[in-house]
Each structure stands twice: as structure tokens, then as C-alpha cells.
Design goal:
This protein is of the alpha/beta class and 422 residues long. The protein has 2 domains: 283 residues, Rossmann fold, CATH 3.40.50.10540; 86 residues, formyl-coa transferase, domain 3 (2-Layer Sandwich), CATH 3.30.1540. The protein has 18 helices and 13 strands. The strands form 4 sheets. Strands 5-2-1-6-7-8 form a 6-stranded parallel β-sheet, sandwiched between helices. A 3-stranded antiparallel β-sheet has the order 9-10-11, covered by helices on one side. A hairpin with a 4-residue loop joins β9 and β10. It is elongated. It starts with 11 loop residues before the first strand and ends in a 15-residue tail after the last helix.
Length: 422
């Protein structure tokens, strides 16, 4: 499959990953035209059985596996391992998110595949990386948020550590993995050599926590929870209005003077307690009381109108639906409605895409996630295998059960701990 009007057209990537971090990485690459061949075990990616569901299909699986072709290979069979190795021999990149050592056992480790394909870029996404005392621990997003200090830094000062409302460790690991793959592919253009890209969710989550890490590096003290406000600036956070909450971001004295005038309290700008960003932060509670005495008598819409007209950075607090259904999101094409495939009886789906725009290329590729094994025969034919050889591989167990058999039994909602995704 080629997409000549996209920047990654011509790249072929074999994706052994499942659930979130690895599939998110390859979804980003597929958005930009790379041909993503998703290898699934006979039971399918675990995410196929995780809700929410629309028309019997997982919305999470649909989003993370857009723009891919699905091929079933049973890596527990010798014929399946040999087939996977053959497929990877002509690939530009391979992505996997097994625990360290599992890919080697399955015959698809970097050392095994790079021997046949020295130019191969091979990315491993795991909980703690390929080295270190924690490297063999299983990991999920909540584990990483807990272990990297993200939960401890989130929430009210007098409350409990709080889980961020998104699987940020998984997502940022997939993002860094896509960045690492592209950097390695660029290097290969110069050297002709592939490399092993080692992406740790632990490393990625701490790298995401850029300001937390910077504060600790400068002071030697772990940042503390401050709730819905900035730890070192004020007014910079969430405030109450009559019918909800809003946020403002005031980061310098000039803007504070503008803000004070906008809320009808010009004397605040000359009050010694609020003479600098640092002193305003020290007296944040008193400043907050003054601000909310003004805004609690006004609606969120009115607060935004007044402060926005004055040039103060301000915004209502929206939910995800409101954000995605906004005019701005529509203009930026953050969700694309795509027609369903014939196997889905034409049902349309709304799917996300990567957010970067390129002036020299067309719109991102957005197509529905594949059915389990939907492209197995197509991919095998492209490898030069005829119907007789494909039938032989199926008899040898390389391709799992026949598609018709799979359709008659539900996907198991279980995980194989030996091949757990992280």
C-alpha cells in the first residue's frame, strides 16, 4: 500500500505491539502514510475486547489501530515464527511492546531479525526499558504514574495523590517511540544501518514531567501538590464563577495590572503583597478571595468576555465532548468521520489522527481499523505465496484458525502473562 501524497509513503512497518503504547506509535506513523502491518495472535489484540463498544466493536481498538492492515500469525508455532521472520526481512521497521526477552523467545528479537535485515529499525516499548533492575516488571499506565511522581504531584495539597484522567504514560511512550523510529530511519539514510530503539515508559513519563524534573534538578526537593493552580505564579489557575469554573494565566506584572483593571480592582497592582509574581504566589489565598468575590457574581461566559476583551489569557473549563465539538477542533480536523467497511455494513466512525500539519502534503490518512486477520491473504500474496502455500501454512498452524472459525467464537478477554504488552 502506498500513499504518495504523505511524508511517510513507501515505509513498511511490521507491528507486533498490542493494547496502547505500541499501537499508538504505529497509528501516528500510519496517519502519515506508512504501511502498517499489524500482526495479531489468533485471539487478537486484547484491546479488541475492551470497551467502550459501538456496534460490537471496541472504540479504543478502533482509534489506536486506524490505518493498519491486520494479519494473524501464531508465533507459538515454528511455521508462524518463520513466516514472521520472512515478513520482517523486507520491512523498514518493526515495533514490539513485549516484556524484555519475550520477543527473543518468539523468534522476533532484534538480534534475530537484524541478522537477516541489517538496515532494520527495531523499536521496543516496555515498562522500564531493556536494562536496569526493574526491566522485567510488568507495567501499566497507573503503575508508571505512581512510580514516576506524577500522581504525587497531582491533586489538592491536603488530598490524596491523584491519577491523571488519561493514560499519559502509555500515550507519551508511543509518541516517543514514533519519534525514535523516525530519528533512526533518518540516520539510516546516512549510514545504511538499522538500530534497536529502546523506549521505556518509566523514562518517557519522567521526560513528559519536564517542569517537575526541572524543579527538582534545580532545588533537590520534590515538587508538592498545589491543586488547580500554578506552583510558582499567580493568578494562574482555576477560579469559581457563578455557574461553573474558568482558568486565567497571568505571568507578569504588566498583565497583572491589566487583569486588576479588568476586574474593577486597580489597587491590587499597587498592593505590596502583589508586587511581583513570587509575592503574588505567596499570597495566593488572599488574591484568590478577591478574584472570586468578583467572578462569583458573574457567569463563566461573562467572565471570559470581560477578561478576553482586556487581553487576559482566559478560558472556560470544557469537557472532552465540548472541546471536540468546538469550531476550532472541526477546522483543525481533530476527528474525521470515515465510512465503515463492507464487513461493518457501512457504519461510519469518527477517528482521530496525528495533529501536525504539513504544507507540502495532503490531509492525513484516516481509515477504519481492520477486522482480525482481514489482510492475511492479501499480505501473503504480496510476499509471493500462492494459494497452495497459504493453505499449507494454515495446516501447519502458522495462521491460527481459519477466519470463518474465528468469527463463530468470541475473543477471549484474557492476557497471556508471558507476552504481556509491557
Amino acid at each position: 500500500m502506498t500513499f504518495p501524497d504523505l511524508p511517510l509513503a513507501g515505509l513498511r512497518i511490521v507491528d507486533f505491539s498490542r493494547v496502547l503504547a505500541g499501537p499508538f506509535c504505529t497509528a501516528l506513523l500510519g496517519d502519515l502514510g506508512a504501511d502498517i502491518i499489524k500482526i495479531e495472535p489468533p485471539g487478537g489484540d486484547d484491546y479488541r475486547a475492551v470497551g467502550p463498544f459501538a456496534d460490537g466493536e471496541s472504540g479504543l481498538f478502533a482509534a489506536m489501530n486506524r490505518n493498519k492492515r491486520s494479519m494473524v500469525i501464531d508465533l507459538k508455532s515454528a511455521a508462524g515464527r518463520e513466516l514472521a521472520q520472512t515478513l520482517c526481512a523486507s520491512a523498514d521497521a518493526v515495533i514490539e511492546n513485549f516484556r524484555p526477552g519475550v520477543a527473543d523467545k518468539l523468534g522476533i528479537g532484534y538480534a534475530q531479525l537484524s541478522e537477516r535485515n541489517p538496515a532494520l529499525v527495531y523499536a521496543s516499548v516496555s515498562g522500564f526499558g531493556q536494562t536496569g533492575p526493574e526491566s522485567h516488571r510488568p507495567a501499566y499506565d497507573i503503575i508508571l504514574q505512581a512510580m514516576c511522581g506524577l500522581m504525587d504531584a497531582t491533586g489538592s495539597p491536603d488530598g490524596s495523590p491523584t491519577l491523571i484522567g488519561e493514560s499519559v504514560s502509555d500515550v507519551v511512550s508511543g509518541l516517543f517511540a514514533s519519534w525514535g523510529v523516525l530519528a533512526a530511519l533518518l540516520s539510516r539514510e546516512k549510514t545504511g544501518k538499522g538500530t534497536h530503539v529502546d523506549v521505556s515508559m518509566f523514562d518517557a513519563t519522567l521526560s513528559l514531567s519536564a517542569t517537575l524534573v526541572a524543579r527538582f534538578a534545580a532545588t533537590g526537593v520534590a515538587p508538592q501538590r498545589v491543586g488547580n493552580r500554578h506552583p510558582s505564579s499567580a493568578p494562574f489557575g482555576a477560579y469559581r464563577a457563578e455557574d461553573g469554573c474558568y482558568v486565567v494565566a497571568v505571568l507578569n506584572n504588566k498583565l497583572f495590572d491589566t487583569f486588576s483593571n479588568a476586574i474593577g480592582e486597580p489597587q491590587l497592582a499597587s498592593d505590596p503583597r502583589y508586587a511581583s509574581d513570587a509575592s503574588r504566589c505567596l499570597h495566593e489565598a488572599e488574591l484568590r478571595a478577591c478574584i472570586e468575590a468578583w467572578s462569583s457574581q458573574r457567569s463563566v461566559a461573562e467572565v471570559n468576555r470581560i477578561l478576553g476583551a482586556a487581553g487576559v489569557p482566559v478560558a472556560p473549563i470544557r469537557n472532552v465532548q465540548q472541546a471536540l465539538e468546538s469550531e476550532q477542533a472541526a477546522v483543525r480536523s481533530l476527528l474525521t468521520e470515515v465510512p465503515g467497511s463492507a464487513s461493518r455494513e457501512g457504519r461510519a466512525q469518527r477517528l482521530p489522527s496525528q495533529p501536525v500539519k504539513f504544507s507540502a502534503y495532503g490531509a492525513n490518512r484516516v481509515s477504519v481499523a481492520p477486522q482480525l486477520g482481514e489482510h492475511t491473504t492479501e499480505i501473503l500474496h504480496a510476499l509471493g505465496l500462492d494459494a497452495a502455500r497459504i493453505a499449507e501454512l494454515r495446516m501447519q498452524g502458522a495462521l491460527g484458525r481459519a477466519p470463518a472459525d474465528r468469527a463463530q467464537s468470541p475473543l477471549p478477554n484474557v492476557s497471556n502473562t508471558e507476552t504481556d504488552h509491557a
